[in-house]
Specification:
Elements (H helix, E strand, L loop, with lengths): L11 E6 L5 E8 L4 E6 L20 E6 L18 H15 L4 E6 L1 H12 L4 E7 L6 H8 L8 H8 L10 H9 L4 H18 L12 H16 L9 H4 L9 E6 L7 H10 L4 E5 L9 H18 L3
Parallel strand pairs: 3-4, 3-5, 5-6, 6-7, 7-8
Antiparallel strand pairs: 1-2, 2-4
Helix pairs in contact: 1-2, 4-6, 5-7, 6-7
Amino acid sequence: MPERYPAIEPFRTDTLQVSDLHRLYYEEIGNPAGIPVVFLHGGPGVGAQDYYRTYFDPQRFHAVIFSQRGAPKSLPLGELEQNDTWQVMEDIEKLRAHLGIEKWFVFGGSWGSTLALTYAIHFPERAAGMVLRGIFLGQQSELDWMFKDGACRIFPEEWERFIAPIPEIERSDLVSAYYSRLTSPDYATSLTFARAWCAWESAIIRLLPRVPPLETDENIIAFARIECHYMLHKLFFPQDTYLLDNLDKIQKIPLWVAQGRYDIICPAITAVELSRRLPGAILNIIPGAGHSIVEPGIASSLIEGIETFADRYWSS
């Protein structure tokens, strides 16, 4: 099993108008007649990245990668209006119908796993199977781990840098405190706090931290604004057990999970909880791995998962 496939260029790039405000960038890679799979990026707000193309055998798969609402390459950049879980979920269906795909595998991680599960619950007939990483269910306990009491105990020095720009009186609700500054009309303020928000996540995303790739200031602001927007609104779910409460609708959909043992952003207990409630799920706890999709053990498991599911569950 290859660690990752060589980078390839898309055979098509285009945009799709999904509302009166939002136009999504998408690209298609691999074999136009191949097994269809949609890639759901994390964040929210990360956007389509070139290295996402390296997880799919280009001879076998027809992979569709797109930037969600407000994410880089889609327009308007950083837009929060008409931007919630339900609208982005519907966008996946609009894109599928636009491309004339009857059914596809759903591939995603972190927030992408949240979105994948939400999509499968609402459109189970369209999901041939799910290959997911770093499970995030949007529960209050998961939000508290990241932004209140949890990850800070493992990365205390990075946490101190994260909370430092916020007055002590506001630190009981850091997400709200950051949101008010990320949405400031003052560009310098929004950029300063976007960099601080991104620095916290970048510091804890990998088992062995690396210098994050350079991003434009506009993309940094867009990512931080969108991610904070979703966290502030608790992913727009009516209750924090929404996904767990609706798993009966996806009991028959194959699920493969690659979960880093040392994932600080999405701790392994959540993947274990999900797998317990979906007895057919295949859970791979990856030793020596954190949260990032590019960590070798995670990448290999995801590739094994999509290729195993293609063998087992796809018939042309």
